[in-house]
Amino acid sequence: MQIHPNLSSEQGELLRAIACDRNNCKLNNRNFINILHFCFQPCSLLYNTDVLLSPQLIMVKTIQAWDISLYELEENFGLELVNNTDFFPEWTENLPLLTDIEKSSLERVKNNYLNLTKRRSMSEEVVKMVVLSPLLDLAGFYQHTFEIETETSTEISAVDESVIVKGSIDVLVINKRLWILVIESKSTKFDVISALPQALSYMLDTPNIEQPTFGLLVNGREFVFVKLVQVQKPKYARSDALSIEKTNELQQVLSILKRFSELILL
User: Fold this and answer.
1) 3-class SS at 106?
2) 9-54 pLDDT per residue, tens
3) How far apart are CA 247 and CA 211, in angstroms?
4) Which of 35, 147, 161, 251 has the fewest CB atoms lying closer than 10 Å?
């Protein structure tokens, strides 16, 4: 089997293994991603649309995580959206009740947000400091039982009325079970759902596919929760968008985070 000249001999051997195992349906999504990450660059999502498994030549195309689309995730990893409400009850059922102190703290967070957004759009750093950090604290994620890691910040861009608008996405990972993506942009072009493909690409790379993983997408104003299950075929669902500006929805966000804090320790 001829290997693309840009690949090393070690990469070539791994790609031969990919070709053999993938054809025999022995390679699951987790191992597939791991091998490709090892062969090429970390923090990139690689996929097999442009892997030519011919006897003569193997080539691999790399797509950065922030360039991935839901369509590509569905086509190349068999990802499936589930609309059945029974699949993701964690954002609506058995939510912990909040104390009066917690409700008062959330009201302060909301007032701080409203005060700051009167002046200018919030950067991702301000979103994390003013909105996200107090929520994580109230949910207990700063306790010793949780480990918070950061992923490399990525950029997003889009054309908004003939002007190129740029934003960025920061990623926090808690216990390899909860991914939090913070979106910043000076344009409403990037609503909170713009981070969904990237969130799922990170979540597909979870170390333990036997347990569900969760995500939170936040742009300061809105919050969307995500659940991914990878047993057999990868499936996901997302919550409705909850707004800091709507009555009691910030309380629901905290209750969901507290519920997640219980689940990811199981």
Assistant:
1) helix
2) 665 666 666 656 545 544 555 555 555 544 444 333 443 434 433 4
3) 33
4) 161
